[in-house]
Structures are given as structure tokens and as C-alpha cells.
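Now for one protein, fold included:
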Amino acid sequence: MNQCCKFQQINFDVNVNNQSGELANTIIDLKQFSMLLDGEPISMRAYVEDLDSPNFDAELNGTIDFEKIAKIIELEDMTLKGKMTANVATKGSMKDIEAENYAAIPTSGSMLFSNFYYADADLPNGFKMDDADFSFTPKEIKISKLKGNLGRSDIDITGGLTNYINFIFKENETIIGELTFNSNTFDVNEWMEEEPTTEAHEITDEEPLEVIALPKNVDFTFSSNIKKVLYDNMELQNLAGDVILKNGIAYLEN
């Protein structure tokens, strides 16, 4: 453990009960957990019963410094920095999630990010949020503000994400977004896939352009306004319209 990161004032009260050995009869009651991570407070509570089809009631409050966490927990081939301040509460059951009965899953709160940065082998160019504000309801994650960078490209995003609960808890679910996207300069070239070659050669107009690998479980519509787009050897000015990401394909409209 890195000596610069200190856990202090750790307090918790937890009870685990299972009298039959069956997952369905398990009860985990974390009544209270709190600590200081280098002086920054974190607290949470959680109640979970029936691990086959969980019922849950949880709350998280506090500030998490991801760089300090990364020094404590080894993150292989991953860079994680920045801070998140969370105040989130949720309650419900997996049955309600599967039935899309969101009215029975009260979820509320907010997450604020500052100087957040994430990069890994699949995202080597990195994703940065200088300043971001998310709020939660059972139906939607509202993005009031997200300013940062995707690789070399500056981004400014607002809007909302729906079906996020199913996306988190169930396989093969799609997250849906209606977003406004602004950028001064978006460099598409750094996201292009390169085919392996055995020797250097001069690129000609007859060679096919490579495609960008996009996730297939994302259905986003970006109402976009981009002042400059760098694509291959072209520079496009004042691109305005809708960019639709669906089924792993990007469409341009208007």
C-alpha cells in the first residue's frame, strides 16, 4: 500500500444471515460504513436480500479520489485519475428491473466529476471530464454538464440517458441517449483502425478508408455542432446536424 494514502476512522456495522445455505435466503445488512481516505469522508449503507433475485436498498455519499484508489488497488493496463463526489440512493428489486417497472425503483441523487481521466488498452487515447454533473431518476441519467476531451478532441455534452438500469444489470441491453454535442475540433483520424502492413507504402486514393469500431449496445442521437472535423486528409468546417450511433454504425442526418 502506498504510504501517502491513509484509511482513517473506519467504522462499520454489518450483519450477514443465512440459516439454510440457499442464496435466496441470504440477507446482507450493511447498516453503516464510514471512513476517511486521506481526510476525505466516504459513507454508505446497503441492504440486500435474496441473492438469486436480489432486493436492495443502498445509499452512497462522499468524495472518491480515483488516483488514490489506483495507488491502493493495482489497476492493470489502466489509468484512472480525478475525483467524484456522489450523493446517490436507490431501492428496488431485480424483478422490477427485469419487468422495467421503474416506478418501483426510486433512484435519486447526483454525481459530480472533476479532472477525471480514464484510459485502458481499448481506449488508449483516453477520456477526460474536466467538469461533469450527472443527476439520477429511475428512468433517466440527466447530464447537465460534461466538458472535457475524447483523445485530442474537445467535447461539450448535455442531455439524458435512458434504459441505464437494464443496461447495468442485464445482458444484451442497449443504453439510449438523446444528447447535444458541441466541439471546436473533433479529430476522427485518431480513432480510425489501422490494418496491419508488412512494409511502409504510400497511401493512394484507391485504398479503402478504415472504419471506426463502435459499440453495438449503444443507441445515441447527438444533435451536433462541430466547428472543425479532421477526417483522413479532409478538414470539414461547421458540421451541424444529427449523428446517430446505432447497432455499431454511425449515421449522419441533416
